[in-house]
Amino acid sequence: MELITAHQSEGAYQLGGKASAVCDLLARADASDFHDGIDSYHRYEEDFALFEEMGFQCYRFSIDWSRVMPDGFHFNEEGMAFYDRFIDSLIAHGMEPVCSLYHFEMPMILHQKYNGFYSRIVVEQFIKYAYKMIDRYGDRVKKWISFNEHNGIILDGHKLAYGAICPEGVSEELFFHQLMHHSLYAHARVTEKVHTIEDGLMLGMLLYIPHYGASCRPLDELMARNHMAKTNVFLDVFVHGEYTPYFLNKMKREHTMPIMEENDLKVMKENTVDWISLSYYNSDVVQYTHHCYQAMNNPYLETSKWGWSIDPIGLRIALRDIYEKYRLPVMVVENGLGVEDHFENDTVIDDERIAYLCQHIQQVGKAIDEGVDCRGYLVWGPIDILSSQADMNKRYGMIYVNRDNDDLKDMKRYKKKSFEWFKEVISTNGKSIESDNDF
């Protein structure tokens, strides 16, 4: 029922043969770095015991590519042995492992020498890495995710997260479409491998942000749909193995069609996912302005400190949209609220987090009542870790970790108020927070 990524939690930056990774490029200069994380490399047993106490049944983690294949070409047994121990402990504590193969942890050398996923060489090395991990851990790990928030490549220009920089003379849109195609081809190859292991399931994973038109003006609605097409193209490849007609024609019309090798589309068509998984944090409002879309604040919603709208019903809308169109099991693998916690008397009174999670879980329940086949809900994250930009001030966990951006302190773990609250939610299968609102 929970999720933590390797680079934001493990630490042990210079241990076990690990090399630097492209996620290091994402750290803000005014925050911290990913060198120490929350030291889960050494403390995972302690953390798993706390998760078991809360009642977790499922746990999503990522393998750090730069730990198991530091130079991008050769495997590191010490790194792989760490994940053997990690997975075995996870299972011993009663949690089913769900493994993400790429959460922005590409070995830095593949960025520096080959320009990341823009290069077909890196695509092939990723496939080699993924196949080795599936062979190594597939007897224990049955649910696999290839790329975290896969559509982020074209939604918000995650170029450094994919180890790539737009070459001179290439348009940004064509560049992002090339990254999209290379990664979707790699995803299909990984899907092919997952389906060779007993009971193996492939989960296509994306960031889902419902877009609402700012008004009933048709042009506003068209702008919202055009933006959602960037998400739908990934869903169609996941489920149908082909690009949507709208997006394919858009790339042809605008001369942004990526280079494809002869069998790419065939491989994508033949290897589709078993489930769809998503992260959900917020929704957006857009309006038509001078032939393009403009994002707006939603006057009906509150926002977090970091400017993200708080829209529980948007999660229900997302689940219904996905399931009604694609008819595959759906799993929420990320959802949570980042806040600046106030640690006092060995705990945090995080009522704001409790309210956020409560409202979102209630909406998942309503989506299920409305016919959605939702197989799980994972919180981001069960324990405080560094944010995607290495900021320890933005905390999501139900367990407080005693460190900040400037001082590692002792990294001791403390239960927040939300710990006991979520423990009861799990033990009652959500009945403790059933909504009395029929709508």
TrEMBL record:
Keywords: Glycosidase, Hydrolase. The keyword Hydrolase applies. It comes from the Bacteria. Gene3D superfamilies: Glycosidases (3.20.20.80). GO terms for molecular function: hydrolase activity. It holds the Pfam family Glyco_hydro_1. InterPro entries: GH, Glyco_hydro_1. The keyword Hydrolase applies. PANTHER family: 6-PHOSPHO-BETA-GLUCOSIDASE ASCB-RELATED, GLYCOSYL HYDROLASE. Belongs to the glycosyl hydrolase 1 family. This is Glycoside hydrolase family 1 protein.
